[in-house]
Amino acid sequence: MNITILAIESSCDDTSASILQNGKILSNVVAGQDVHRQYGGIVPELASRAHQQNIIPVVEQSLRLANIQKSDLTAVACTTGPGLLGALLVGVSFSKTLAAALQIPLIEVNHMRAHILAHFISDSPPTFPFLCLTVSGGHTQIVRVDSPYDMVVLGQTQDDAVGEAFDKTAKLLGLPYPGGPLIDTYAAQGNPKAFEFPNIDVPGLNYSFSGIKTAILYFLQNKTSAHPNFIQDHMADICASVQQALIDILLRKLQRAVRETGITQIAIAGGVSANKGLRQTLRNKQETDGWTVFIPPMEFCTDNAAMIAMTGYFDYQRNLFASWEVSPNPRMHLPLTSA
Ligand code: KG4
Ligand code: ZN
Fold first, then answer.
1. How far apart are CA 170 and CA 40, in angstroms?
2. Which atom of ligand 1 sits closest to the CA of residue 137?
3. Which of 36, 39, 62, 258 is most buried, by CB atoms within 10 Å?
4. pTM of the model
5. Ligand 1 pocket, 184 CB below 6 A?
């Protein structure tokens, strides 16, 4: 019998649906939400409303592109957390209703675990155990992945996520939300050594980005009070230098995790893994330090339902189905324990 899963992702500001059949992704449709741009960040209530408008067309398109009928589905998987409560509610309520109507199982998926398991969409995934640097708008974690069902968080940010550091810097530079990709684009033309920012350390394999955020703010205030056009005149160099400082912070702890665990299979996951500077830095590590590096294709770095489908496929094979009482959990955490 075919295992055919419809997956729904609605944890933040992307509405996405994907169809997976027997481990292969047949479609992955993502609808973004431009409505937040004018506010310089995500407005949760507007996100929920946009999900509500987008969800049916996105699901229908994913079925059409995959050439699958609703009656072919064997399960529905959906993100239940972490994320914005109202945004999650749209996806969870839709998925529950559809699964109940079709009388098929519902699978609940942790969004951060799904970012990591996105690597298994590839034909040459990592083997276990591997370390995953999970970097998004809400998380910065180093995770030891022992199996699809066993993941241990070795370290994580104690304040802001690295994606927030990118986005808040972009806001200070007058760039629209989400600024991470724009910093990446400007950085490609700039000198990463033009300006220096501190790499403030915290214990263990944990991260902190609040210190560098403040340092960037003071640096820009200082420079623009002397030269009002400083940002416009040095945009590429500022972006390249900030990006380099953030990558240095990420790498320092990742290197330490490699030393402490002896694991040299390294994966990156989450929206910030789309960053070209970070991708290149990790590729260089293959040459210099003998790491085996796994970098997801761009479409599976930022939020997407294909990663939810792949995670749902792992859980389907172990009959890990949700109860009908399942509800969103905005603060859902890793680690996960073996089933
Ligand atoms: O995983 P994701 O799509 O959503 C969350 O789960 O948070 O990550 C979004 C984050 C945002 O902070 C965005 O600015 C950042 O990923 N991002 C990037 C790039 N593309 C997305 N940051 C730096 N460079 C990029 N190319
Ligand atoms: Zn995400």
1. 10
2. 7
3. 62
4. 0.95
5. yes
